[in-house]
Protein 1
Amino acid sequence: MAIASCDSEPVQTPGCVQAHGALLVLRLSDLRIVQASENAAAVLGQSAEQLFEQSICTVIGVEGQSRLRSLLDQEAVFCNPVYLMTLPSTHTGTGDAVLDVAVHTIDGVAVLEFEATSHTVEPKPDYYALVKTTLAKLQSASSLQQFCDVVTNDVRGLTGLDRVMVYKFHNDGHGEVLAESRRDDIPSWLGLHYPAEDIPKPARAIFTKTWIRPVSDVSGALAELVPLANPDTCAPLNMTHCVLRGVSIMYTEYLRNMGVTAALTLAIRRDDKLWGLIACHHYDGPRHIPYHIRAACEFLAQVVSLQQQATEEKEHLAYRLKMEGVHQVLLAAAARDGGLAGLINGTPSLLNGIDAGGAALYYLERWWCIGNTPTDDELNGLGNWLSAVMLPACPRPLYVTAKLAQAYAPAAGFAKVGSGLIAVPVSANRKDLILWFRPETIQTVNWGGNPYDKPTVPGANGPRLTPRRSFERFAESVLQQSLPWRLVEIDAAASLRFMLAEWVAGQTGRRTVLHADLARSNADLDAFVYVASHDLKEPLRGIYRYAHQLLEDVVSIDDESRRKLDGLVRLTVRMDGLLDSMLHFSRVGGTDLLLEQVDLNEILAEALDFLGSRTIDKEHAVAVPRPLPTVLCDRIRCRQIFVNLLSNGLKYSDTANQRLEVGYIAPNDSHPRPHCPQKILGQAIFYVADNGIGIQAKHHQQIFKLFKRLHGHDSYGGGSGAGLTIVRKLVEQHGGQVWVDSSAGQGSTFYFTLPSKASPIQ
Ligand code: ADP
């Protein structure tokens, strides 16, 4: 028989009672007995056959009968067992047994249940007195854990049972022992998890209707109803509300396999759904919990149901506030730092908010991780899948799962750390992501050193129902699954995403504005430089002319004055050169780029041609290891880049055997990519290398500044110090970067990129 078959057991209509008590079914219209449990003779002194069609007064006396009538008339006894009376032994003639009698009605019959009790006299005990102190303690409990601890302690105090547990059902149906009070000498089961099937569906269903389920003697006999069906209706008795209801064999076997000899189970409900159970076990033989103690426990279970919701909500609120608090700090840090890395690197980090095993952030083209997360490669695969497949398919920008491997098969490889996932994008393109990971449930479950590891003696139904097997089945049932995410956690992730996305959008917006401002002020500056240098040239020409005339015209000039006039002429020539450079520089930014597919080999040839007429001769060899690609760029500006870099390469050299090389490194080349100041992905890197005098590392940044020269005006062919500044400006206009790799005496290599929108390499 499969475990699932428990789901079809007739739990509500077993047709038998636990034999320590007796049950009578009365026709409501005349209160005559239509069914009796077959043990009626032993408990009530009259056999079922004798009792059939007798008036109930033959069992409970005239006074009992009139009390029954008034109860049936006045109290809400429908599906609600109510104490009727205590029946002295003189009534039944069955020795010393004093019986508690409870009654409820269902389907047109009254059901009377007779059970032995410890007390002998009426009036009925005061249940409230029994639970008063417990109620006070429950009220002051601030967490669900404290609350459950009070419940387990006090129910155990009331019942004297060996172990009392609060057992909570998770969203996926599996159970966990949240709190426990036990005899000192028995091992703890606190924190253990059980598969959903351990409590079959009908048993759960019954607990949404009734509050209590006592089993006084797990090995006790059962007594059938006689007749089995109601002779008036031919229907079996609905025993949902009978405390004596016969116990299913599967259940008693399960209990016996755990060594349990008596049990009491109480329902904890929330919004009419079963939230959990108060499960009590006894290991020391049969244990009958009398009616008034059970009533007190039942009352407690109802209070727990009401209060538990409030306590859990309080706890949820505290958790939500904690998460929100952490997320606020993270946002403030992001605003302060101008970036998101602090979400992972800072204190607090993402792991201090939502309860997760690890968190990962994709930002600035890389992963930032904290806690237990998949590897970078695994994250890359997952990130691609999320951005390209999963997130676009989600109704809102958030993906949550407790079974990632079911949706994304490669996740089976990292199920241990990432069976559960909350993913939110933090940028419009869904590439930048925040991921929270939760480990596989089995990794978080307390199973160490537990009593179930001991072999158990299987019962008639085989080893299937042993606790050990329970755990194995539980382990199977939660394979590659994490504990479910709570609604408050999903909400917290969604609101963090919302706030971060707003912030990122704000940043991008601000950057666009700044960029526009900067572009405008650059253009203004260029215009100013152009006008200034153009206008300055006029008076400069005048100074030059006058100085020159003075030198030629004035005959009687002393040597000192002549030297000074020579200096003046030289300075005006130099200043004229500087103004030319400034004019040139200002024009570089003047017009928009004219992007076209340009064969760089042609550009190089043009540049060499341009230089060749003046500087290139036989000694200057320019090597091109492989043909250059065709790229999208501005032809004129690109030629200028090559001209400036090549002319520097030619100029700054002491060797007679000059060598230059022009080439590129493609993104997929096996050739190791050179160090570059910023990350460059998927772009070709171009270079112009020489074997010249080289540049000390401390000057690598300086040389790109306007008019910055490392040598005297006249050494190495002179220059204004604007050449590299112009190169940088031209490269940046193409969205690229330029940098140098060099050291003194070792030659120099200037690298640059041209990532104009279209793909750079064909
Ligand atoms: P310049 O007109 O002086 O050449 P640049 O802006 O082109 O101005 O270069 C700035 C300075 O960087 C130069 O003065 C020189 O000192 C140094 N430099 C540029 N290119 C090279 C090179 N290939 N090898 C060595 N030094 C160089």
Protein 2
Amino acid sequence: MIEIKKGMNESEIDDYVNYVLEHMSLEEKIAQMSGNGLFMKVIEDKGFGKRAYDAAGSKKFNIPPFKFTDGPRGVIIPGSTCFPVSMARAASWDIDLEQRVGDVIGKEVRAHGGNLFGGVCINLLRHPAWGRAQETYGEDPFLLSEFGVALTRGVQKHNVMATAKHFAANSIENARFKVNVKMDERTLREVYLPHFKRCIEEGCATIMSAYNKIRGKYCGHNNYLLRDILKGDWNFKGFVHSDWMYGVKDTVGGVAGGLDVEMPRAKYFKVKKIKNALEAGKITEAMIDDAAGRVMRTILNYVTKEDPQNYENELIGCKEHYKVALETAEKGMVLLKNENEILPLNKNKISKLVVFGKYAKVKNTGDHGSSNVAVKKVITPLMGIKRYLGDSIEVVYDDGKDQKSVKNTAKEADVAIIVVGLNYKDEGEYIKEFRTGGDRDTLSLHDKDIELINTVSAENKNSIVVLIGGSAITMEEWKDQIPSILMAWYSGVEGGNALAKILFGDINPGGKLPFTIPKDPKHLPYFDKNADEIEYGYYHGYTLFDKNGYEPAFPFGFGLSYVTFSYSDLQVDVKNDKVIGTVDVKNTGKIAGDEVVQLYIGFEQSQIDRPLKLLKGFKRIPLKQNETKNVKIEVSRKNLAWYNPESKSWEIEKITYTLYMGGSSKNDELLSIKFEL
Ligand code: GLC
């Protein structure tokens, strides 16, 4: 037998796995295809997610199990660093930062004894009512790709296998176990799958199949998705594991469909059931060898790599990691409105400040489902503001419940900060038994919050609304009477500190929306949280708004700063396999600030039905006061292709394209220039 050791190369691992497959019994192979008795552990631990759960592996053949833990808000095992939710991170548009988040997560997974991180959630936000919106990176496949890749890179650097999930088209929560998602081939390939493909190209080790059906077949049984596209077209070498509760429905469906591992335990992938299916000729031994081989090969590829460092316990939730959580919260907050330059607040001009709303004072880090990072202490908005100000200003708190007290407190204060929004009951993974999460019925705030905003703003013209949530919140009922609005998300353990620094101008906000906020929800695609069946169209988010000429309340890619930026001298260059856009961006304000420069490609002249424009590049750029930078963004030619379902291939049209660059997706604020391919 070959010895398993650090530094083995891929062909040595292949040889070993082939040797093992030759010498393993059928039962031993089948044992690679499921998790190892989760429930006893959950009972022992008095709760879920308190350790990494193992699956597969073989003592006899020296193959360690894979040890699964969840995310993406951080590692869910208690003590870990709780980051802002993925949507807040996407709003930073800073992929280097996301890679550093991945780096922290990778280290903490290892320090907890895990080796597989099930938290690269890259489902597309088709409709903002989706309950798990916060776990992903927004409505655009390119943005999802860049962030998914960055997190994967960071995590896998520490020899932790990453999982991209939920494969695929998982964008409705309440109906997740049953809904059949229909869509045409272009929609599948161009809108719902590109981000998964990018993560696979980047070497993402594993895939988790989704609960829902696509074109009538459960994703965990879907041979078109798993065998033809993932393992065939994309040449994926890792393994596919199922989502946990009802991800597999029957033995033959799963095995023949291309699912390699049933998680978290064998129900349909039990030795006896698989043997029966084999004997009945419904599956083949080659399928078992393929699944077991993939699992063992993937595990060995990671556990035999030299580690870049040691992973001591002290790393978990350490100061350095909290700093990354703070930076992420600072960079992700999005300033949506700032009339009369109410913000940043000048503490020398304020003597009394009031903070309203229950969410100013409670731990509110997001969903209470599988992404919940158990953390003892969180810096709430109120704590952050009080800590920041010390004794310099009187800070009053009012939970906002008593209208009379609200009026008086609002009147007496120089500034009113109203913290409102959502929590784990409003949105998140839907766990019926715990009455938590699910899709939202409305995109607006609760009536009580709107009433609070109305009462406060009638008494105090310096009112600022701080929104907490993981997705779009509509604001038409109240946004005109509020001068400043800040989207603060579920911003993790350090959120309150980040908020205070932004409110008082130590940090100049630079986040931008990873989705469109509509004025009227009717402008969004059809959504039914209880749907048995639904058709996903080619258009959603900004592509739908562009197509129909709807004006959003706040466009995709939008966010203000305490300074303004001007764009000039847009140029385009087509070289070999690249289209290169360059533009001068100037900070025209009095302090430093970050601008997220976005590049879109327009397809107006296309011979086929294509969006007005698509995001194809972005860069977050720091600019000092008065500084101008020439910003260059490259787009690889293959990123301009469309999927031709007839030829079953990606094709690049020979037409005149438009290259747009600017600070949001808003058409009349983008500079544009034509180029030909
Ligand atoms: C769930 C989720 C999935 C998670 C898994 C394990 O039901 O859908 O995201 O990774 O269970 O907790």
